[in-house]
Amino acid sequence: MALQRTIGLTGLTFIGMGGVLGSGWLFAPMLAAQQAGPAAILAWCIGGVAIIIVALPFAELTALLPEAGAMARLPRYSHGGMTSMIIGWSAWLGYATAPPIEAIAIIKYVHPLFPGIFDPTATDLAHGPTTGGYVAACAILAVMVVINALGVAWLNKANAIITTAKILLPLIIIATFLTTDFHIGNFTAFGGFAPYGLAGILSAVSLGGVVFAFLGFRHIIDLAGEASRPHFNVPTALMLTVVACFGLYVLLQVAFIGGVPASAVSNGWNKTDFAHHLGPLAGIAVVIGASWLIALIYGGAVLGPFGSGLIATGSNARLGMALAENGFFPALFTRLSSKDVPFNALVLGFAAGVCFLTLSLPEVVALNSSAIVLSLCIGPLAVVAMRKQLPRRRRPIRLPAAAVMAPLGFIVATLIIYWSGWGTIWRLDIGLAAGLLIYVVKRRLEPGDDPVDLTSARWLFIYIIGVNAVSYLGTFGGGIAVLPFGWDMAVLAAFSLVCFRIGLVDALEPARTRELVEISMPGP
Which residues does 151 contact at the CB level (< 8 Å), separation at least 6? Predict the structure, then answer.
């Protein structure tokens, strides 16, 4: 049995958009406006361009080697076992934490219909779910697993329906706000278009969560092994996802800025807030007399996290299978069910999700943020390394101006990691340490002949230590602010270029890469 290549361009694009459009779009416009005012529109432009720069190397790589769980497999080909273990394990942790987070979010939104599952008086989401709520969250995780276990066609169809709704809902909200009591003066009043200057715009990109809103595109990469015409569909879907979601977020930001009543921003954009439990968009809907939108927003608040969790469940299973193929997980997780899905890896992800439900939610959210973004750094580095390692293999898509774009993408990926904050990065360190412990134990129990490739991972250890140091000394997420805002990012950019160069030197020899690729993906 083998994975079936049945997901077309539309399905892949919807998988990417479904990953990007969780429930965050309900709050993202206000969070960005609080940092930058109307200039939050520019923040979305900067964030969109930044993500395109990060995604473009993956477009070339996934067209070159379209394989399931590519976030774990690509670093194996470029830098060997240890690097692929760290990057793959990090990505797996990020995916494994996503479904339980989304399940708790669903519990919060549906509790008016089922009062016994969530305590509405709780001061934060972490303490809201009751015992019944946690049981319900486990049931939601199980439903996500069942849909995935029925086969990739079921996942594709279910996600298409959910994502269609997730696209239509914000479009309806945008149209309603633009045509009902839209205040064009909001774009220049209350301190002008950019009341907090360039610093505010950059803060919206980072602290406002703009750049993090796009990270769902990565699901396309890990489902590339089930894409039809992967050499064309995978990179095309990556770009369509980023561009389409960029357009949607910009329109939503415009609608929010013009829809906010003057009374809500009279004390400044940074003090804008709405008390509605469904977020600021619902608050505006009530103010402008479009209360009928509340039902749609409520539906979006439930469909958003469920759809994102559903996709993350599928991606996590492919990553689990890839890690088993790399020798990190036991071989039983490479086995496919009669529906041609990695069922054992699905069960592993479900078990991990249930375990994460027992931990503090803020800790799980922090681990999710940092674990996902670490894996982004491999794309820009691997795309240059593989041009030397696999020079003759057909490349349907090529990263233009790779000598400039790849290092720039590496810098952007590093900044995204840094922007997640010291409070999340040190938690990632604990997760990575746990992964290294598992790896050491696995190697002792099953020594095998597969080399560790420790020297090829030198760059990654230097990179992780350096990012930790700058994060601790910097200004984001609990850093001690020895490095002031601006200088911290400049130092990190310079450090990234050094690590990028070391990473190219540390890449596997071309013969070793060709050997690994021919074993799993023979071809020209």
Answer: 4, 339, 340, 341
Q: Report which residue type is found at 166.
A: K
Closest CA to 277 of 116, 122, 133: 122
User: And the tokens for 215?
Assistant: 């990270």
- Give 43's Cβ-side CA count (13 Å radius): 36
Burial class (CB in 10 A: 0-12, 13-18, 19+), 115: exposed
Q: How many residues does the chain have?
A: 524
What single-letter DSSP state applies at residue 509? P
Q: What is the DSSP letter of 288?
A: T
Question: Count of CB atoms within 10 A of residue 214's CB?
Answer: 25
C-alpha 312/C-alpha 315 separation (Å) is 5
pLDDT at 124: 58
Please report the DSSP string for 1-32 in residue order.
------B-HHHHHHHHHHHH-SSGGGTHHHHH
Q: What dihedral angle (degrees, nearest 10) is formed by the CA atoms of 212, 216, 221, 227?
A: -160
Tokens of residue 217, six digits: 């595109």
CATH of 9-520, one of 3.40.1050.10, 3.40.1550.20, 1.20.1740.10, 2.20.25.160: 1.20.1740.10
Which helix H or strand E contains 450, and what residues bound it? Answer: none
Label residues 324-361 b or e (16+ Cβ within 10 Å = b).
Answer: bbbbbbeeebbebeeebbbbbbbebbbebbbebbeeeb
What the block records as the tokens of 329 is: 């997980």
Segment 405-433 mean pLDDT: 92
Do residues 309 and 300 make contact, with C-beta atoms less than 8 angstroms apart? no
Contact status, residue 230 vs residue 223, Cβ threshold 8 Å: no
Kindly report the average pLDDT of the chain as a whole number. 90
* pLDDT at 154 exceeding the cut of 80: yes
**pLDDT per residue over 497-509, tens digit each?**
999 999 999 999 9
Alpha carbon of 258 to those of 186, 187, 261: distances in Å?
Answer: 6, 7, 8
Q: Which residues contact 123 (CB under 8 A, 6 or more apart)?
A: none
Residue appearing with tokens 């797996």: 92
Provide the greatest CA pair distance for the chain.
Answer: 69
Residues 6+ apart with CB under 8 A from 94: 367, 368, 371, 372, 373, 375
Cβ burial of 466 (10 Å; 0-12, 13-18, 19+) is: middle
Task: Report how far apart, in Å, the C-alpha atoms of 452 and of each of 21, 82, 158, 230, 511 are.
Answer: 38, 6, 40, 30, 17
What span, in angstroms and rounded, lies between the C-alpha atoms of 298 and 276?
Answer: 11
Check whether 1 has a pLDDT greater than 60. no
State how far the Cα of 131 lies from the Cα of 179, in Å rounded to an integer.
44
- The DSSP symbol for 327 reads T
Contacts of 522 (CB under 8 A, 6+ apart): none
